[in-house]
Amino acid sequence: MRIAILDYEYAVPSSVAGPADILASIMRTSPLLTGSPVSVQFDIDFITEKDNQLWRKTKGTAVPVKLRKQEVYDLVIVPAMESDKIQLVLQRERRLIDWLRQQHLQRAELASICVGAFLLGATGLLNGKVATTHWLFVDRFRAMYPEVEVQDDKIIVDQGSIYTCGGAFSFTTFMMYLVEKFCGHEAAIIASKILMINLHQQPQDAFSIFRLQHDHTDSMISKAQQFIEKNYAEAISIEALAVQYNMSIRHFIRRFEQATGNTPLAYLQRVRIEAAKKMLESSQEGVEQIAFRCGYEDMSFFRKIFKRYVAMTPKAYKEKYGRNGLRLVTTSVVS
């Protein structure tokens, strides 16, 4: 199976070398466990552009050679880029963008990692399709590519011949997914055990941080947001907020949603859940005490809302990200 990995300027190095190292390691180590070579052999090339010419360098070699127009790959991987260079990369890499289109027309499958989705989006091949990228850059991606349906809660989105994944270092799980797709479930299980990489992980929601949405010009709504952020632990009535800012309830909700992208109630819940996440990470208090401190008196409702926004229960979140959870991970690594 011929695999190309784009190696453009400002690509994240681990996102370029990492997938290649994982695939090469699978070919080296799987036979040690199974006694036979993997069913699919990977021929890996790195593709770069220099002097208006595309070059390929086979993994394990030092000298690049010119890439012939007739060369077609089975899979092309678009690695993540430095997040502050997105626009610059899109301007500089027009040749690679055209090449991606040509490869796909010739039946190559395409896979982007993290904000590499911006480069893939520039081909137009994601239009009318579903994709994902890092949760921190979802709004920017939607603004640049409105014809793409973004599922920001997903780590991996599979559209048949085009794949996208979330955070830059989620490429390890992503590669396990692709191994399973191309080599079968048994090969993926063996690879995940040898390389100690999880086959499946929770959605991006578990990693995301709610950003207070003050990037608008509605000063009255900003004041309402600040009130919610300061008093989230109290019983807050949306009707009372509307009266406080001299609006009808319907006008207040509509204006709030236009400014922030959330209804006032959804904003209140997200502020509370973000506060709860921080307490679960740093406090020794129990889940019930933390729920109460964040304005929740009904534990079942708190668990339901928390899971909706974080994709795991408060208890599971505390076990994974709380101080005791981190101490357990450290202990297991040391021992």
TrEMBL record:
Cleavable signal peptide: none
MF GO annotations: DNA-binding transcription factor activity; sequence-specific DNA binding
InterPro entries: Class_I_gatase-like (IPR029062), DJ-1/PfpI (IPR002818), Homeodomain-like_sf (IPR009057), HTH_AraC (IPR018060), HTH_AraC-typ_CS (IPR018062), INH-QAR (IPR052158), Tscrpt_reg_AraC-type_HTH (IPR020449)
Family matches, as Gene3D superfamilies: 3.40.50.880, Homeodomain-like (1.10.10.60)
Pfam families: DJ-1_PfpI, HTH_18
Ranges of residues in domain HTH araC/xylS-type: 222-320
Keyword entries, A-Z: DNA-binding, Transcription, Transcription regulation
PANTHER family tied to this protein: ARAC-FAMILY TRANSCRIPTIONAL REGULATOR, TRANSCRIPTIONAL REGULATORY PROTEIN
Protein name: Helix-turn-helix domain-containing protein
